[in-house]
Amino acid sequence: MVDIKRNQTRAVKIGTVVIGNGNRIAVQSMTATKTTDIDATVKLVQLMHDAGADVVRIAVDSKKDAAALGEIRSQTTANLSVDLQENYRLAEIVAPHVDKIRYNPGHLYHHETEKPWQEKVRFLAGIAEQNDCAMRVGVNCGSVDPEKKSKYDSSDSITPMLESALEHCDFLDSLDFTRYCVSLKDSDPAKVVEVNQKFASSRPEIPLHLGVTEAGIPPDGVIKTRIAFEQLIGKGIGDTVRVSLTVPNVRKGEEIAAGQGIIDDIYAGRVRSVVEFNTNSLNIISCPSCSRVENEAFVDLAEQVKSMTEYAKEHAITIAVMGCRVNGPGETDDADLGLWCGPKVVNLKKGTEALGAYGYDEILPKLKQELDQLIGNR
Questions:
Q1: What is the pTM of this model?
Q2: What is the pLDDT of residues 7-18, one digit of tens each?
Q3: Which long-range contacts does 165-171 make (Cβ < 8 Å, 24+ apart)?
């Protein structure tokens, strides 16, 4: 066993699990069913729980979702986290049924836009405290606080993320609410390492939730995640993890197995210490299938994109395949070519430029046409 000196983070209780303060690194995952489909969601929660998930996250974006969550809670003993989207006020309805509330600072600007974010966070912290819930401040590269993002050059995605996370931590501390952890996620493992190291250096006492967002299809998605985790966990950074893979629901247990496997390997000294991933070849990033996905064909499409683009594997091009309107538009901006999938059409982008919306049976030829043009121009 490798003797890893863990950061002395404070303890944060999430249901029956405690992260931080030297406790074992917890492994998490997220459901991919529609939350209102109670039977399917309970089945998936149980699948993940049986696979060893310490916490299972469920997205809530409407009062119908919130009502369903109450019934889901009654049918499982798993530790549950709720993923709040734009409507932060739903926390009041769902908090009695969960063990943790996750909010994204960037998404607080989408609902009740006239109110300052501080008022919304004060509300969330109060609800969490009243209902014995932990919280996670979840900062994502593709949905950063717009005020922070506007202050910096577009090439600097790390500083806005870091400033946003630190600002929210300072505010929560000012409310005397310290039962929270933080996540700073990017699809680039190197950026995940850099931003988390910087955060840990500034606020070493706050537990960190590690993950590479949109890691993609296995095995690449596991490899990207391993690269980040080895360099962070190996240095004592990280108290809970999630491996985000694009897989069908029946394979969601693979996220838990991959996370635990990587942790076990790091502690056993079985590490690869790879610093970069595919910097000179094709890089396909795709989000994990989750309950926000608006068409389950998204998972098959991601596989088809990977297969169709095999001929371009020697070209340093990034293609992003996103499954919903929540993160899709923003998180395809940095890719050379991006697809974000709606209920009936797939939106094709070249960087930040929208190229049109096409049916699921039309998109691959359009993508190939743009890819060929991009290769030709280079």
A1: 0.81
A2: 999 999 999 999
A3: 165/105, 165/137, 165/139, 165/199, 166/199, 166/202, 166/203, 167/105, 168/105, 168/121, 168/137, 169/137, 169/203, 169/206, 171/118, 171/121
